[in-house]
Each structure stands twice: as structure tokens, then as C-alpha cells.
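ok so I'm stuck.
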Amino acid sequence: MNFLTLTKENLEQEHICCAIADKKNAAGVARKKEWLTNRFQDGLVFRKADVRGKVFIEYLPAENAWCPIDADGYMFINCFWVAGRYQHQGYGAELLDSCLLDSAGKKGIVIISSAKKRPYLSDKAYLLKKGFEVVDAAAPYFELLVKRLQDDPVMPKFKDTVNSSAFNHNPGLTVQYTDQCPFVDYYVQRELDMIGEEFQIPIHRIKLESREQAQKSPAVFTTYSAFYNGKFLTHEILNKVKFSKLWEKIKNV
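replied:
not stuck anymore, here's the structure
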């Protein structure tokens, strides 16, 4: 398998693995590429297999991560995905090894997961097999995992801003998001309006525009997090069908 590293020079002609064929996500792809261009100067690495599929890893120094963690001196994996027919062939291990090589001199590597396997989060069971360990947790289900490369008495942790009641003043559905994922744009701009109209609830959009904002986020998963009447609902991107399944549980909250 040939692997490519995205740069400012080749970014426009290369796909970014996720939203390859779906035209409705074209604007999201453009936003993601702009986000990547601005992050390269922060040390971000996006490495992918030279195939039309989801085989990639994205990481950067934790000090520059768009995530509310205290992990100075570590590398942070922002996204790590091997899907479809490319699974179980060792490609994930190759990508992770490339991150390890780039993390020489770092205290270790950190990544967000959860006890149960969930969409958009890397598989905890796989990470444990690769030498990661759980060092912190945040409600309702997020876990911070670390692969130590040096002895460090101070382990990474989630910031104190996590689990705050920042959105309690917002009735209805509030979505906090960034341009880190190419799928987000369409669902934030189109599907949220449809949800608001269908269920007759207020919609609030909060876009994080800088790492400083993201590092102070009350939500662990800054790519996309939804709150209903101020309470965390999900980190999974909502459409009208998904929201309707949650509605019976939350409509009286």
C-alpha cells in the first residue's frame, strides 16, 4: 500500500478520504481543506492510503489540538479511520506506526475514545491492544487514552471547562461545531433547519473558529456536539431521522 501525506502543494488535487462521492458534502470538503491548510502551520499531519476509501490518520501536537485537553508535550490524534474492505489488513497499524515515528521526543500520544464502540470515535479495544491506556473520562461516555512514550508523572486530562453548563440558557437544540469534518457543513446548515421546522423547536448554531475557543469548549468532541435544553445529547451528526428517534426521550426534558 502506498501512503500519501497531504501538503499545501497537493491538497487541492487529493481527496480527504471521507466525503468522496457525495455531492451534497462538497461545501464541507472545501471547508475541511481550508481548515487543513491553516493547521499545517500548527504541525498537523494528514496521512492516507493512495486509494479511494477511508484509510487515514490525522494528528498534531496536543498544544495545538482543537480539543479541551491538558496534554502539553504529547501528540494528539484528531481522526483515525480505516473502513470497508481495507479493514483487517494491517493498514491501521501502518498509519499508527507513522504517527509513532513522528512523535519521537514526545511524552506520548493521546486520543479520544469511549468504553463502547461509537461512530466518529476510534475503537478503544483496538487502541488498548496497541498499548494505549485510559487516563481520564468525561460524561457521558468519553474517555481519554494515552500511549506513553516517556515516564511522566502528570498524565493528560480533560480541561475543567468540560461538563460545564454553558448552554443552559439555550432552549431547544444547540449544536457546537467546527470545520474539522467534511460531513458537518451540510447537516448543520440544512438538516438542523428541517429538524427545527419538523419538531417546532429553536435551533442554535455555535461555530468554533479557533483552537483557543475549541480548547475552552464545554463539549469534549468539538467537531460536532448537540445539546437539548442545555444538556448534552450526542456527538453524532444529526439528521431528521436520527433526531426523531431521540425525540421521545428528550421532548419533556
